[in-house]
Amino acid sequence: MRTDVFAYGIAPGQQIVIVDDEITTGRTLADLTRRLREVGAVPLAAACLVEDTTRGARDLLTGLGLPLVSLTTIKGAV
Question: Between the CA of residue 23 and those of 11, 39, 66, what are the distances in Å?
Fold first, then answer.
């Protein structure tokens, strides 16, 4: 599991939509959202291809004020 978040060339005031292939816990996107805000960027929303609806990602991101749009959802991996 990766714990570092790197984003380059982000300018204060820049509006950003974060895109990820899959979201399970939402921690990576939450960390990235916090870091972007620290440098003055404005994360508007997050989008993903697949969202695991059983791990609380949507609630975590909603708590940060970051709307999540997903192409498809699953109820956990088997």
Answer: 25, 24, 14
